[in-house]
Amino acid sequence: IGTTAALEIVEVKAQVTGQIISREFKDGADVKKGDPLFRIDPRPYQAALDQAQGQLAQAKAQLALNELNLKRQLDLRTKNVTAPQELDTARASFAGDEARVKAAEAAVAAAQVNLDYCEIRSPIDGRAGLRNVDVGNLVGPGGASLLTIQGLDPIYTDFTVSEPDLPLVRRYLDNPNLKVMTDAEDDSVGARQGDLYFIDNAVQPSAGTVKLRAITPNPDRALWPSQFVRVRLVLDVLKDATLVPGSAVQIGQNGPYVFVVKPDSTLDLRQVKPGQVHGDLTVISEGVRGGETVVVSGQLQLSPGAKVLPKDAGSGGEAGMQRAKAID
Q1: 3 vs 227: CA distance, rounded Å
Q2: pLDDT grade for 262, boundaries at 50, 70 and 90
Q3: In sequence order, what are the residues at sequence separation of 6 or more whose Cβ sits closer than 8 angstroms to the Cβ of residue 106?
Q4: pLDDT band, very low/low/confident/very high, at 178 (cuts 50, 70, 90)
Q5: Where among 234, 265, 282 does a domain terminate?
Q6: Quick one: how far is CA 107 from the chain centroid?
Q7: Domain presence at residue 2
């Protein structure tokens, strides 16, 4: 069991102070990055921009005048007609005007930024939550958030594995078949395949588990943040694997074994090497071949070489039988 979490969560706040004059979205709507959300009254900031542009024009005009004066003083100085002090004054005036032009340009840029901030736009693709302010409210940088937007496609799947299983997971981290399957309860959509994204750097002391996170595609937005989901971590894909019911595998003095029914209906005790568990089935890497019949119940009453009457599992009788399956 795991939970989902939004890929991105953004608290939208005002970056300039002013009155909200319009709202451009519906609560709960999907929004794209750059979509308008709110508009703040731009008139004070437009006026500040106009003023800054006027001051820039004045600074440029003064710079042009002092540039002409500097050229005139340089020409007179080459003819030894003017005093060195007048040339130095012209140079200082020109340098001061250059600095004032740069300051005026910076003021224009700052005023333009503030004006642009009057148009509050979505910083991410996602789904809008319930708005916290309405048209007419006064907002500002120090106020509460106007809206929360959460990115839902893709979405995070958070789950845990027990501490003893962690070395096995780490062994398969570079395996291209490693994947995370996420399935929601009462969902008409099948399990979604995602990629393992994160393994926590510490074991949770109280639970003895390690937190993992996967990135799961969610194009239909069927998965919601904080939703409980069923998670299956697939470490590898075994081709031509032989599967037997888990109840067929017994533990004896020499290790795991199964009873195999031979063609003459006698029993053969086989030492086996079990592998991964797949639901109610267990992978057998050695000891049983696909198509052979194994005993799945009543093993305590049986012995090697005994003759049995094979019956399908669940049909009654002393020993239930089922064929081993070979899957791709």
Answers
A1: 5
A2: confident
A3: none
A4: confident
A5: 234
A6: 39
A7: no
